[in-house]
Design a protein that fits this description.
By secondary structure, the chain is α+β, with helices and mostly antiparallel strands. The protein has helices spanning about 5-10, 40-60, 85-120, 130-155, 170-185, 335-355, and strands at about 20-25, 160-165, 190-200, 210-215, 215-220, 225, 230-235, 240-245, 250-255, 255-260, 265-275, 285-295, 310-325, 330-335. The protein is flat, with a radius of gyration of 27 Å.
Length: about 350
């Protein structure tokens, strides 16, 4: 199968990556309801898949797809004023889904032909198989061209967001937020706290038992968006991840579970927490603020009834609590409390500027 050069393909495509301009700090009508309901969400999915089919038909003129079904459960998280952006993101995600599935098929076909070509070219009877080898060589080249073309389309399926700032103060405060995030993400350890309960074992020093999982914070975007400004990402161990952009925040579990939040709808609060931590588990950037006994009396003295009772360090962690009125409730702890505190301060300064 012959294909056009990639440059020609891209020029002829009907819809790949739209571009929108967002002014950070621009006043938006707070009474304007613009949540993307289930009907429009389904329409965006359908449009994305139809766009993908149109693109692939231009490339190969052979793609057909069946029934489309939707299940979505994060509507109540969405803030106002982001219908258009969310609709385009959903559209592009499902465009990428169709194109990605097709790319996988072409990849499998390419690997199959390559294996046949290698086996035949290295056969003991290869001098008798010259025509077959020539045919496989041509098929391999065509298959590679097809794969590269559809991969290029997949890479180009994104929403480009160009940001400008209403005043230099908005730009400076967002830059301060980014700087504080750089420090935060470089904490030795960041945990997502997933469970806690009161410790009813009266002789234990710890009053609360908590379940925690290490996560990573990074500079990352969802695949359907590229922007002219840096954005950052909070990994969530037991739910959707958070992606912070200059004008909004995306809560993302999957292409079917996605919400766009206004900064003023997402509250981030800082506090400090004292933990009992085994010496071997203490991170390099953690501050030790005291010590106690693993089994302790009410007056703080060691309970001598327990053989092998030992001292355990008390450390100070920074707590980042993320909440919305619509139901988000996430708690992170960082090994360096100062970095967590500074980030929360910068977030709240930037948030207040956007009000």
């Amino acid at each position: 199968m012959k294909t056009e050069p990639v440059t020609n393909i891209i020029q002829n495509m009907p819809f790949i990556h739209p571009e929108i301009l967002i002014t950070v700090g621009e006043n938006i009508d707070p009474n304007k309801e613009t949540t993307l309901d289930s009907v429009k969400f389904q329409e965006a999915k359908n449009k994305g898949r139809e766009s993908a089919n149109d693109i692939l038909k231009q490339l190969f003129n052979k793609v057909e797809y069946g029934k489309i079904e939707s299940h979505f459960n994060t509507e109540r998280l969405n803030s106002k004023n982001f219908e258009s952006i969310r609709e385009q993101i959903v559209n592009l995600y499902f465009q990428r889904e169709v194109i990605s599935n097709e790319a996988n098929k072409f990849s499998q076909n390419y690997e199959s032909i390559r294996a046949q070509h290698f086996k035949t070219s290295n056969s003991f009877f290869k001098f008798l198989l010259k025509k077959k080898i020539q045919k496989l060589t041509e098929q391999l080249a065509d298959s590679k061209n097809n794969l590269e073309s559809v991969k290029r389309v997949e890479e180009e399926s994104y929403l480009r967001i160009k940001y400008v700032y209403e005043t230099t103060e908005f730009k400076e405060k967002y830059s301060d937020l980014i700087s504080s995030f750089i420090a935060l993400k470089n904490s030795d350890i960041i945990w997502d706290m997933t469970y806690s309960e009161a410790n009813t074992e009266t002789k234990a020093a710890a009053q609360t038992t908590m379940s925690r999982n290490k996560v990573a914070f990074s500079f990352n975007s969802i695949p359907a968006i590229k922007t002219t400004e840096k954005n950052f990402h909070f990994e969530n161990f037991n739910g959707g991840d958070f992606y912070f952009y200059p004008s909004f925040i995306i809560y993302f579990k999957s292409e079917e579970d996605i919400a766009i939040l206004d900064y003023n709808d997402l509250q981030i609060n800082y506090s400090e927490a004292r933990f009992l931590e085994e010496t071997k588990d203490i991170a390099c950037d953690t501050e030790i603020v005291g010590e106690t006994w693993y089994r302790v009396n009410k007056d703080g003295s060691p309970d001598k009834r327990f053989v092998g009772n030992y001292k355990i360090p008390i450390v100070l962690y920074g707590s980042i609590h993320i909440r919305t009125e619509s139901g988000i409730n996430e708690l992170y702890y960082t090994s360096d409390f100062k970095k967590a505190k500074h980030f929360c301060e910068q977030y709240n300064l930037y948030q207040s500027l956007l009000q």
